[in-house]
Design goal:
seven-stranded mixed sheet; 17 strands
Length: about 230
């Protein structure tokens, strides 16, 4: 894990999309989008049906390694309001085991406003913990420091003539936006104007490497500028 400081708190990037908060013995993830595959299958768009299992196995592996006491899920936990009911038996078994052992907090998102905690855990609209706001989507005018998700930020760049995309965190003095943790989630370019609007201040993208965080100042572009790039 590599350290990431934010609003006076020492955090650590776990993997490439989660945060470990040692002060609170807490693991934070965003945008699991559980049962996205089954949602699209119902409309005739066949995607591999293993996304929920893969996502829950990834969380389970982090829990085994880090041993948190609390997990905060920052919204869009399920891909739709019925996803909680459709959760595959294997994923549900992992989730029930974890929610039975940990203090599991579901923050509601725009995709799952009705998340109830059927498989355990507590569902809240948002929460303030040790001076940090935990919510799904960053609020541009919010002066208090906040952790959020929603945008699935990815940093796209050219390296030796190849286009690559990496999950990234987006940080300002008062905003820290987490990348999507779910195994079947896309990503919004970190330079997108909607991320700039949410941040309301100059931002940087943070990409976790093996031993450090790579920092990239963000110059936000319009849709036309992104298409020409």
């Amino acid at each position: 894990m590599v350290p990431l400081s934010f609003a006076g708190h020492r955090l650590f990037v776990a993997g490439d999309a989660a945060l470990w908060w040692p002060e609170r013995r807490a693991l934070l993830v965003a945008d699991l989008h559980l049962e996205k595959g089954s949602f699209y299958a119902a409309t005739g768009q066949m995607l591999p049906p293993y996304d929920s299992r893969a996502t829950m196995e990834a969380i389970d592996a982090l829990v085994e390694r880090i041993r948190p006491e609390t997990i905060y899920c920052l919204g869009d936990n399920f891909h739709d309001d019925e996803g909680e009911e459709r959760l595959s038996p294997c994923a549900a078994a992992i989730l029930q085991r974890l929610t039975g052992a940990l203090d599991w907090i579901w923050i509601r998102g725009n995709h799952d406003r009705e998340v109830s905690g059927r498989w355990g855990g507590r569902a809240l609209a948002e929460l303030e913990v040790s001076g940090l706001l935990l919510r799904h989507e960053a609020e541009p005018g919010e002066p208090r420091p906040e952790l959020s998700g929603h945008f699935h930020p990815k940093l796209r760049m050219s390296v030796r003539g190849r286009r690559i995309a990496r999950r990234c965190f987006v940080r300002t003095e008062t905003k820290l936006i987490l990348p999507a943790f779910g195994s079947l989630t896309g990503g919004l370019d970190a330079t997108h104007s909607e991320i700039a609007r949410a941040c309301g201040a100059p931002a940087e993208a943070l990409v976790a490497l093996a031993d450090r965080l790579a920092r990239f100042p963000l110059s936000h572009r319009t849709k036309a500028e992104r298409q020409r790039a």
